[in-house]
Amino acid sequence: MEVTIEQLAERLGAELVGRDGDGDKLITAVCPIDAAGETDVTFITDDKHKAALDQSRAGAVLVSAPLDSLSKPQLIVQNVNAALIEALNLFAPKLKPPIEGIDPTAKLGDHITIDDGVSIGAGVVIDDGVHIGSHSLIGSGCKIGENSNIGSHCRLDNNVVIYHNCCLGNHVIIQANATIGSTGFGYSFIDGAHRLIPHNGGVIIEDCVEIGANTCVDRAKFGNTIIGAGTKIDNLVQIAHNVIIGKCCLIAALVGVSGSCKLGDGVVLAGQVGLADNISIGDGAMVGAQSGVMRNIPSGETMLWTPAIKRDEALRTMGLLFRLPKIVEKLRQLGKRIEKLEAAEDDKK
């Protein structure tokens, strides 16, 4: 794919600032500042990267305001991130589109409803009573259990497993090898052995949710595990039984959410965060990477560390922790001085 800078500006709704003739130059890709070449468009989202533009070979740059000192063609947009998404979509690899219909190697059960425009890939297994909404894509090797419902315009990448009695809304994306509706990790120690507690509930995934590769969402013991509309979950995340996640949350890789936790709307969990069971996190709260959450978090709080504490307190504590070697050394010196003073007093007696 290649377009002129002028065509790119028109596509992005951008104002083109540059010299005469710049608009005819070709752009073939989007690249970061340090890797961009003469046929690439790059971008800056904050002032700290402005200096690097002088050394960049990029053919054009996306900016939110004109840079007087820059001689490169500039595409002035209201929102650089939004324009960047549009540009990346424009230059995305053109892959072979899925073929509408059912691959002959797929195995379908009874009483299945498949709406218009659905694509079902090779080796897919769909059990009895499943419904698949219009224009959804079921990738090769997927397995959909009994009485589950897949909404319209969903995409299940290769080898996704949807267990029985699960419900996916519309425009849901689940990446390869994720598992939805597996039995939760719930046991009771009875007569000298761990006995599995039955998990008879389901999973509800609301509209426009995206779930990363190799992520697992466990079914509920009773009721449903719920993922709210617009929530985005990264790869390698564990969502346990009876968890309720609000709308438009962001959950990064390697997060573990224990059973019966409740997350409000707009919650952000950074990488490797762990939640104890039955934790409630209020709307808009944020938890920093590798934090361990052991108690409820109010709305709007930012928490760090293990156990997770308020951000300002955590930063003060970490500052003191890094000073410990110097503090210990000073204490040793003070201890030696005290010993000398005490020895001198003893000699006077």
Produce the secondary structure layout:
Layout: E1 3-4, H1 5-12, E2 15-17, E3 26-27, E4 29-30, E5 40-43, H2 50-53, E6 60-63, E7 74-76, H3 80-90, E8 101-102, E9 107-108, E10 113-114, E11 119-120, E12 125-126, E13 131-132, E14 137-138, E15 143-144, E16 149-150, E17 155-156, E18 161-162, E19 166-168, E20 173-174, E21 179-182, E22 187-190, E23 193-196, E24 202-205, E25 210-211, E26 216-218, E27 224-227, E28 232-233, E29 238-239, E30 244-245, E31 250-251, E32 256-257, E33 262-263, E34 268-269, E35 274-275, E36 280-281, E37 286-287, E38 292-293, E39 302-304, E40 309-310, H4 311-348
Parallel strand pairs: 4-5, 5-6, 6-7, 8-11, 9-12, 10-13, 11-14, 12-15, 13-16, 14-17, 15-18, 16-19, 17-20, 18-21, 19-24, 20-25, 21-26, 24-27, 25-28, 26-29, 27-30, 28-31, 29-32, 30-33, 31-34, 32-35, 33-36, 34-37, 35-38, 37-39
Antiparallel strand pairs: 1-3, 2-7, 22-23, 39-40
Compose a concise summary of this entry.
The chain is an alpha/beta fold and 349 residues long. It has 4 helices and 40 strands.
What does this structure look like?
With 349 residues, the protein is of the alpha/beta class. It has two domains: 3-90, MurE/MurF, N-terminal domain (Udp-n-acetylmuramoylalanyl-d-glutamate--2,6- Diaminopimelate Ligase, Chain: A, domain 1); 102-310, UDP N-Acetylglucosamine Acyltransferase, domain 1. Strands 8-11-14-17-20-25-28-31-34-37-39-40 form a twelve-stranded mixed beta sheet, covered by helices on one side. The radius of gyration is 28 Å and the shape is flat.
